[in-house]
Structures are given as C-alpha cells and as structure tokens.
C-alpha cells in the first residue's frame, strides 16, 4: 500500500485528488494539509511514503517544505504538483530533492502512474522541464565571486548544487547541522545572493563539464 499525504491550500483540489487516488486499491491517503505549518506537524506524525504538494502555499513555499521533509525523513518522497510552469520553482524543486515535478494539467491516470513510480524510488522529472533547468545553467559565466569563499564554503557550495540538505551536508562533512546553516548563510552573503537555488546555479554555471554530464543524462 502506497501511503500518500496531500498538501494544497485549495480544499476542492485536495478532495478531487483524494477522490481520484481513492479509486486505486494500492494507494491510501493518510493525511491532508492546507498550509506549511499544518503539513510539517502532520507529515511527521503520519510518515507517508509520498508527499504530493503544491509550490505556493499561504504561509510559505512548498519547495522549502519539500527540503524540510527530505531533511527530517529522507525516506519520504516528495512530488511537486502545481499549476505554475515557473522557472525558479522548477530549479528549486530539482535542488530541493523533489522526486518529480508535474503540472496540474496532467491526466489522472498519468498522476497515478507517476505516484507509483515515485513510491518505487524512481526519480521522475518531466524531461522538457528538466531541460529548461539545464539550458539556464550550462553557459559558463566567468563570475569571480566564488574566489571570496573560504575553503570550507567552497566544499559546501557544490553539495548545495547536488541538492543536499543542511543535515545531509553536515553528515557528509562531519559538521553539526547548525554549523552548516551558518556556513550557508555566510556564503550567500558573500555572493550577494538570497537563496540556495541562486548559489547552486552560480556554482553550476562555473562548472561546464558538470553540466554537460547532466545534459547527457536527459
């Protein structure tokens, strides 16, 4: 049985999705939420297999929620379902560790099949959406802001680009999660950026060989 948690601020949307998924013998809806705050508490309590979530919520970002869920419970898979074909949101979803990103105009059968694949551990991102991400980051910029980073910050930046959470970076580098958070804040300040997504893209722009490898996988 695939245990699914729904996060969307529109009750009618949640009811429609719940009704669709409820027709499947192998899918169970274990909880719903309309805000980030509600979702954080209820997801921790229910521990679903897959969280199906919208990008834009009244009290925050579904992308940030995805990152938090993945940090607290790496076994939970997150599938972004949104009406917005937004470049920043797509980039952020990729870097937050989302297992997939699908638009709300997807057919019901397609959503069900995608859920099953995500629950089985597959990484699903619409090839056209993923290619948009690649096309925005493959051109090298020659930006010298990276030279201002310390050795430790230069270690952390590529891990951000790989989509690792602060907790995962800490485990990789044997650092406390709070220490990693401080390093991330410091490198964002030095780079004149506000979001992890921007820092990750800046790093990827400076690594054309890496991005060619990514493009080859599409």
TrEMBL record:
Annotated ranges, domain HTH luxR-type: 142-207
Family matches, as PROSITE patterns: HTH_LUXR_2, RESPONSE_REGULATORY
Domain of life, source organism: Bacteria
Pfam families referenced in this protein's UniProt entry, alphabetically: GerE, Response_reg
The keyword Phosphoprotein is assigned to this record: yes
BP terms from Gene Ontology: phosphorelay signal transduction system; regulation of DNA-templated transcription
Gene3D superfamilies linked: 3.40.50.2300
CDD domains (UniProt xref): LuxR_C_like, REC_NarL-like
InterPro entries named among the record's database cross-references: CheY-like_superfamily, NreC/VraR/RcsB-like_REC, Sig_transdc_resp-reg_C-effctor, Sig_transdc_resp-reg_receiver, Tscrpt_reg_LuxR_C, WalR-like
Matches recorded under SUPFAM superfamilies: C-terminal effector domain of the bipartite response regulators (SSF46894), CheY-like (SSF52172)
Residues bearing the modification 4-aspartylphosphate: 54
One GO MF term: DNA binding
Record has Cell inner membrane as a keyword: no
Domain Response regulatory: 3-119
Keywords (A to Z) from UniProt: DNA-binding, Phosphoprotein, Transcription, Transcription regulation
Protein name per Swiss-Prot or TrEMBL: DNA-binding response regulator
Species, as recorded: Subtercola boreus
């Amino acid at each position: 049985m695939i245990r699914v948690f729904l996060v969307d601020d529109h009750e009618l949307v949640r009811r429609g999705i719940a009704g669709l998924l409820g027709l499947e013998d192998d899918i169970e809806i274990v909880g719903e939420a309309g805000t980030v705050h509600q979702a954080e508490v209820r997801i921790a309590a229910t521990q679903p297999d897959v969280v199906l979530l919208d990008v834009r919520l009244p009290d925050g970002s579904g992308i940030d929620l995805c990152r938090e869920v993945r940090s607290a419970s790496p076994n939970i898979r997150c599938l972004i379902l949104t009406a917005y074909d937004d470049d920043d949101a797509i980039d952020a979803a990729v870097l937050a560790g989302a297992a997939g990103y699908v638009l709300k105009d997807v057919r019901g059968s397609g959503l069900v099949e995608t859920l099953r694949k995500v629950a089985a551990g597959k990484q699903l991102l619409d090839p056209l959406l993923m290619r948009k991400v690649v096309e925005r980051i493959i051109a090298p910029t020659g930006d010298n802001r990276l030279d201002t980073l310390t050795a430790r910050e230069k270690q952390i930046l590529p891990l951000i680009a790989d989509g690792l959470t602060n907790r995962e970076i800490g485990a990789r580098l044997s650092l406390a999660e709070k220490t990693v958070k401080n390093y991330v804040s410091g490198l964002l300040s030095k780079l004149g950026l506000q979001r992890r997504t921007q820092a990750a893209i800046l790093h990827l722009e400076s690594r054309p060989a890496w991005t060619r490898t990514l493009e080859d996988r599409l």
